[in-house]
Amino acid sequence: MPQPYLLHVNSRPTIITPETYQQWYLEEHIRDMVYFNATKTGAVYHSSSSCSHSENHATNETDQMDFLAIYQTAQPDCLDTPEFKNNVRQRSELWGKDLKVHLDDVCEYAAKEMKLVEVLGSYEFNEVAGSK
Q1: Which of 23, 95, 114, 117 is 20 to 30 A distant from 102 in Cα terms?
Q2: Dihedral over Cα of 13, 15, 19, 20: its sign
Q3: Residues near 99 by Cβ (< 8 Å), separated by ≥ 6?
Q4: Predicted TM-score (pTM) of this structure
C-alpha cells in the first residue's frame, strides 16, 4: 500500500548547473531522506519536454522548475521531523568547498504535502508488474 502522505517538491538550481544539482539530488539528498527515515520512498524526475502548460492556462512559478521529487511518507510534515532536521544534509561539497553554502542558496523550490484520498486497483499487482 502507498503511504498516507505524499511530499511533492518542484525545484530548479539557481547558482549551480543542472547536472550538479541532479548529482546532489541522486547521490545525497534523496538517499538521506529515505535512509534516515524522513520518508519511506523517494523518486526524482527531470523535465523531458519544454511543454509545461496549455494555451488556455496561465503559467505559475512551478512551470519553470524542471525537477520534481515525490516522496511517500507515513507522517505529515515530514520536513519538520527530527529525522529530517537532524540528519538530512542541507550543504554539499558538490556545490564547492565553501560549506557555508546552504540548500536555499543553490535552488528555488516549492514543496506541497498531500494526503492520500483513495487507492484504486491492486497496488501489489502494479508493483510486481512494474518491476518486470
Answers
A1: 114
A2: negative
A3: 91, 93
A4: 0.79
